[in-house]
Amino acid sequence: MTDPNDGTDYFRILSFAPAEDFDPDSNPLFDISFKTFPGLRYELEESQALGAFTPVPASRVTAAGPIRETQVLLSPGRGFVRARRGFTDVRWASSVIGFSTEYTTGAWSAAQALGPPDTYPSYGDIDSAWASLLPDDREEFLELGFSNPAPISAVSIYETFAPGAVSKVSVRNSQTLAWVEVWNGTAAAAPPVSRIFTVTFPETSFPVDAVRIVLDSPAVADWNEIDAVGILRVSP
Questions:
Q1: Which are the contacts of 81, defined by CB distance < 8 A and separation ≥ 6?
Q2: Distance CA 54, CA 151 (A)
Q3: Which residues contact 196 (CB under 8 A, 6 or more apart)?
Q4: Residues 108, 208: one domain?
Q5: What Cα–Cα distance (Å) separates residue 20 from each residue in 61, 78, 207?
Q6: Would you list the DSSP string of 111-129?
Q7: Hey, what's the torsion of the CAs at 56, 58, 62, 64, to 10 degrees?
Q8: Which of 36, 54, 87 is the last residue of a domain?
Q9: Of 55, 112, 126, 147, which one has the greatest count of Cβ atoms within 10 A?
């Protein structure tokens, strides 16, 4: 969700009780499960009545490593907790190298997949994502370039309409310009919600400057739309 005051993207806000019912000496305990992917971080913050949020003291958070499932013991008088979502060390596509087709040269064009997500987490046939010229017509592909080549071990694909068509992911060696396949699978329709499809693989021994995504479009009905693509190095 998005904070209407500052436009910051937040994962969720959990309410413990109405502000007038707070016991100043109480310590609400929350169990929170996070859906994460490589490169995504959550910063936990607490508030008394959805007013000013402050960071939850580290001593009150029980978690090891990247937060996935955690317990949060709020400070006295605090009854709300939220997790602010952000990204770490993700490189977003900066140029279009090639594509099979695009719906138009503006809306739903290949260029709509550049930069950080601007459609996700919304779901639907939205013109700020790339879409092929026709739905279910043929195998489609999208090739995107990235600045500052470096070794990587994960590719995150933001699918925002008719997800599940991705069948192959390759990366390009910036030194030889050779494409290397890092993942392949069978395309299958996924639930009709936006998703971040992340493939991980052993870290490349070469710097990567491009990603090629192949979609088995006929296998998943409707336009299979991609909002953004991020690449990163996952810590072991």
A1: 13, 14, 30, 32, 44, 45, 46, 47, 56, 72, 74
A2: 36
A3: 37, 120, 156, 157, 158, 159
A4: yes
A5: 25, 12, 56
A6: GGGSSS-SSTT--SS-TTS
A7: 130
A8: 87
A9: 112
Q: Which two tokens stand for residue 115?
A: 């930069």
Burial of 84 (0-12, 13-18, 19+ CB in 10 A): middle
Q: Are residues 99 and 138 in the same domain?
A: yes
Question: 132: which 2 tokens?
Answer: 């092929």
Q: Would you write out the chain's pLDDT as a tens digit for each of its 236 residues?
A: 333 343 334 444 444 444 444 444 444 455 555 555 555 655 666 666 555 666 666 665 555 444 444 555 566 655 566 665 555 578 999 999 999 999 999 999 999 999 999 999 899 999 999 999 999 999 999 999 999 999 999 999 999 999 999 999 999 999 999 999 999 999 999 999 999 898 989 999 999 999 999 999 999 999 999 999 999 887 65
Give domain status of residue 167, yes or no. yes
Helix, strand and coil percent figures for the chain, each rounded to 5: 5, 45, 50
φ, ψ at 59 (rounded to 5°): -70, -15
The domain in which residue 60 lies consists of 10-87
**Among residues 93, 106, 86, which one has the least CA distance to residue 36?**
86
Q: Are residues 63 and 152 in the same domain?
A: no
Note whether 48 and 69 are same-domain residues: yes
Q: Which DSSP state fits 61?
A: E
Q: Structurally, how many domains does the chain consist of?
A: 2
Distance in angstroms between the alpha carbons of the first and the last residue of the chain: 30
- Name the pairing type of β-strands 166-173 and 80-87: unpaired
